[in-house]
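sorry to bug you again but im stuck and you know this stuff better than me. theres a chain ive been looking at and ive put its sequence and its fold in token form underneath. id like you to explain what the token line says about the fold, in plain words if possible. anything you notice is useful, everything is just below.
___
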Amino acid sequence: MVLAQYSEAPQRAGVSSGSGNRKQEAVVSGVRGGKVEETTAKVGDGVSPVARGCRQFWRAGDYEDANGIIPAAHSSGVGLDHVRVHPKFLHSNATSHKWALGAFAELLDNAVDEIVHGATYVNVDVLNNRKDGSKMLLVEDNGGGMTPDNIRQCMSLGYSVKSKSSNTIGQYGNGFKTSTMRLGADVIVFSRCPAADGKSQTRSIGLLSYTFLRSTKKEDTVVPMVDFEQTGQGWKRLIRSTSDDWNMNMRTILLWSPFVSEQDLIGQFDYLGNKGTRIIIYNLWEDDEGQLELDFETDQEDIQIRGANRDEKNIEMAKQYPNSKHFLTYRHSLRSYAAILYLKLPTEFRIMLRGSEVEHHDIVKDMIEPKTTTYRPQQLADGMSNNHEVSAVLSIGFVKDARHHIDVQGFNVYHKNRLIKPFWRVWNAAGSDGRGVIGVLEANFIEPAHDKQGFERTIALLRLEARLKDHQKQFWTSKCHEIGYSQRVKPKNTTPSSSKKANNNIVSKSSPPLIQDGEILALAGSNEKSKMSGLKRSENGSSEEDGEGRTIKNRSIALKDEEINCVSKGEGKFNLLQSLEEERVKSKKLETELEEKTKELKEVEKEAQTSLDDIVVLKQMIKEEKEWRDAIEQNLRESLKSAEQTIETLQERVRELEGGQVEDGSGSS
């Protein structure tokens, strides 16, 4: 990728020549045979000089000319040594975003990362192209902006200063290029960086135009850029190479940008205040029917996408079931998706969409009495120990609309505060099992894929998937009856009160009662009889002391738990009471032992489940490894077969040549 770097002598921005009605000439240059070639195009006619070409994103990767021939390679740039990046790679790279809203998310991530530099908003809006009247996208924030060096790094492929940073989302240095090229063929960037570290305030403009590169048949990715530096109350052109280069870059930007004059171009900085970045994406992609892929008309406060992601039935259901709105609409509505894109946002930061603020939404608020649990990964690829820093708090519950039995389920899995897997469906059960169960967790121990729409397929991810599935099964099975489904687990009839009540009602008619008129009848044993005979009762029921000085108070005595069904007279009654007490002690001891054994069994089952999960993961890995090896083996077989055919062809050719030589020899002789 060639980042053009041009400068010229000081001049006040916005004062240079040009108006909307005046004809201007812009020079587009290439280098062929060591000489600069220039083509002149008129600017100011209100129309772009660009041949529109293919406007469908998935077909725009064809880089051939009208005859189907790829242009011959030639150098383009300013004579600097560089690694060449063909413009076709811009399109190939952008195909990582199969979902257009995922591209918007990348641009929102860049703005959210600017919170640490003072950003308080990101504004997403729709503009009109003054040259041809087409729609353009605007993404603007008031963060720290970019220096001339930073904006060149932003336009470069794979460069990121945010990699592995704990407080930023971006890490691969590819999001800006893939996202902007996924939404439109061209993007122009305006960035204003405040003075710092003894350096003056700067303004920078960069143009990444697939249309420009294709139309001029460039073989390198050339990015025209210009910079300005503040001097007192004015601005001067920041020289990085030569003034001729700076002028050529400005002419190229004016020719291929949606702005008709330099004054109009520089006026874009007025929207930024003293710092920030303004991104304008234009020549937006169309669908197969010739309509814009993005829908700006259905909802004037939203940006939606057409096609397979749009389900009219879900849109109508969202109106009826508001607590499930985000599940039903996030696939086609940027407003719905942006509301759940971040787990948390600072209260002072706002996401503005077409003039209206996007209300941040916490999915947990859609749940009925959510349950929280902590998931700790067993092993991590980087060798970190299993501590609270790498654990994930899972919130799980029924969505409030679950009583209507609509098919809403899945887990929102975040990474570093950013939603990676929206409503991840881990349990695809037959019938209605699992419906209504949603969950939220932040999994910072697994790495997202480059498009941030999924995670890298690792053992850690497979284990997490298995555990989430287990949590959903347990939650659903134990609580589905609360939202109107038939009960999956029948309660055990072990209520002690019911058994006690039944036993208390069983009393033998042939046996005398143990308690009568507040007195103990026929307590067995000779010692007991002698004590009973020593008692002297008064008429009012009070008791007096016997010969041994003991006092027995007149009160009702009730036996605990259950009464004896049948007792005999004399010593048999006392022995039976004593045996009953011994049985109670034994029963309590057995209950204690049972509880201990139950706990041990649960631990064993938990270990067994963990081992089973590991076996499932290993089986999956072995299966994938086998499929991979089979594919390699098949490719090798085909290559071997092709090589054998080639050898046979060559051998046949050798035989023909040898035969021809023999004939020539015999003829000459």
